[in-house]
Amino acid sequence: MNYKNPILLCDYSDPDVIRVEDDFYLTASSFNFVPGLPVLHSKDLIHWELINYAAKSIPLPGYEKVQNAKGLWAPSIRFHEGFFYIFVATPDEGIFFTKTSDPYGEWSGLQCVWSGKGFEDPCPIWEKDEKGKEHLFVVHAYVKSRIGFNSKLGLLELDTETFRAISEDKIIFDGSESQPTIEGPKFYKRNGFYYIFAPAGGVTTGWQTVLRSKRIDGDYEEKIVLAQGKSRVNGPHQGGWVTTASGQDWFIHFQDAGIFGRITHLQPMKWVGDWPVMGSAVKLNDEKALLSVGEPVDKWKCPEVSADKNRRGLTQGKADVPQGRGRNGKNPPVSEFQTSANVEKMSGIVATSDKSLWLTPSVCTKKIDSKKFSYEKEISLAGEWLEKERRGIIFLGNEYAALQVEKSGANEFMLSYIESCGSKSGDAERKENVIWSEKTPPVKEKLMLKMKFTAAKDGKSGLVRFFVKYGKISFKSRTFSTVNAHWVGGRFGSF
Hints:
- The chain is mostly beta strands.
- The chain has helices at 144-147, 286-291; strands at residues 2-4, 16-20, 23-27, 36-42, 49-55, 73-80, 83-90, 94-100, 111-115, 119-128, 134-142, 152-158, 170-174, 186-190, 193-200, 207-213, 221-227, 237-243, 249-256, 262-272, 275-278, 299-301, 338-339, 364-367, 372-380, 390-396, 400-409, 412-421, 431-440, 446-455, 462-470, 473-476, 480-482, 491-494.
């Protein structure tokens, strides 16, 4: 039986993956949206389920306000001595980690490893020296807009008890000439080599590079192992290596896909001459494979995930996870909706921004995960409304459109369709353009606001229309179209 890429038509940017016994776990960037650091679970590497968030909020000053494109960048997930760890960076505050013994349960609050601007994409590795003493190292990349340079990878050593940095930052690889914009490093060790899997060349047109060295601090050899070539998959970008219990190797990575965000692909992988071979190159004989750069595959034979008693692969240990968890367990489903900033300390009604719904913390949205869908929300005119309070539904890309009800006066409500205008940057301040409105009579009734999304023929943009019918009022918006969404893909929901 074959699977088909992408395995997740949804924006799980910068994915990383591990296996613990027969279970696979994945995490991804969440930027300014909370709860953050999604945790997904799978039994077969193909079908994934959102089971938790590792960060209930972003416990840093300023994140009670919307910080578009900031927040939690490119996490890595690891399992070590009974605990799951997620390491993550914020571009302006530093490197942090959270841990748990139960990925479905409570994760610890984010704790600082290194404080400062300009570090991104951290990944830990635990290592024992010749005397058996354990060390903890973190590899990371650099944010040019904060620190003045990129295309390099750095290394920190952490205290194994406190997890605080105990070394100066050391640059261990400079890709300025051969691997520009190298980032998203993932640390591994195999057959006496340290490996760093890292994309280079940029998100939309880059490639996958693998570095190896006998020493953790280099010098590192380099090899490009996966690139678009003649395939339809631009990038391909950042991801992680995982081995099944049967011993098969796989690589998960993302592709930038416009309004769908950074969607997730699964590539076959094998080792030849202590180098990984990925994608289409896997089907070549070893000599040719080692000389080739693989291309992403559209489909492949499904992973063999069951363990052979005589071949356990790279088992990473046992997790203390309560029975009954997982797809067939009794734990309640996890909401896919996130707010645009921290709202856990807010009570009652949260005021929307007069200038922009982009700047409103309590806008509650979820990611697109289908090429065609509808969404609706019932708005009651009864009950307590504040003066000028607005409630409605919204679709956000680089621009946004919304259908809203506003308390415009005593016993008066105004129904409006609005669109943002101006800059195409998701960080920019927005102005709302009211292009249609009617005042409703002071009745104690409800409105059903609806939205329909359809993928455009180019496969990277979306077509959205809004609908409402209330008494004699019947409205259908013009078709709203937007392609990009500043790293995160399109989102929809309510406010």
